[in-house]
Input
Amino acid sequence: MLLMWDAVAKGRLSPQRFVDITATTPAKMFGLYPQKGSIVPGADADILLLDPNKKYTISAKTHHMNVDYSPYEGKIVDGSVQDVFVRGEQMVKAGKFVGKHSHGKFQRRAPRVN
Output
């Protein structure tokens, strides 16, 4: 996510295209739109708030994933995740995970029609 925002910060991508690439299009591709990938009444409000002016160094020690490496280890990007809300519940606050690991929810998806 931050690698994509870094492209916005450097003028290579518009903020609108960023949202399309990271939220709307994947939700449509996987049959989850508009429940995911949009902010409308009744949808799952998964929202990421970032500080576009804060630099961030990508590291396996600080990311919120269950792996001990990052292919981008040490890369400095423009933008830092501050808060994340999943279905209205805060999962990340000031860059630190504060949520419950059991908060995930199976998402039924519509069949894909070619």
The chain is about 20% helix and 25% strand. Residues 14 and 63 are 25 Å apart (CA to CA).
